[in-house]
Design goal:
Elements (H helix, E strand, L loop, with lengths): L2 E2 L2 H7 L17 E6 L4 H16 L5 E6 L4 H6 L7 E5 L6 E4 L4 H21 L1
Parallel strand pairs: 1-3, 2-3
Antiparallel strand pairs: 2-4, 4-5
């Protein structure tokens, strides 16, 4: 299931931007973060896809969502100006932002190519 993040849980599980200037991922598994709002139509289309993917990739990728209305500081920290915005966060390397509602197959491709491939390469080295 997709978990909601607050600023406090984001600092623990993803990135503590209050302590670090450079990107330093805090999580155990790569993750996908959906920046959304309750009133956003495209966001409502993304939510069930995120829940399905969270089941498919259970134990491999964590799925989070951040309500931009409630967590304006987090939205501001990532320069979120349109929603939905999806942040793909690999275990190693820089996160990648995708703006707009992505279809499930597109999300799966980025998860496979950017989140899981990176993990396989890191384990091989």
């Amino acid at each position: 299931m997709t978990k909601n993040l607050t600023k406090e849980t984001f600092l623990e599980k993803v990135f503590n931007f209050e302590q670090n200037k450079e990107w330093k991922f805090e999580g155990e598994l790569p993750c996908l973060i959906d920046f959304y709002a309750d009133w956003c139509g495209p966001c409502k289309m993304v939510a069930p896809i995120m829940d399905e993917l969270s089941e498919e990739y259970k134990g491999k990728v964590n799925f989070y969502k951040i309500n931009t209305e409630n967590e304006q500081e987090l939205a501001g920290a990532f320069g979120i100006s349109s929603i939905p915005s999806l942040l793909f966060v690999p275990k190693e390397g820089q996160p990648q932002m995708s703006v707009g509602a992505l279809p499930k197959d597109s999300m799966k491709k980025v998860i496979e190519d950017e989140l899981l491939e990176a993990k396989v390469e890191a384990e091989a080295n």
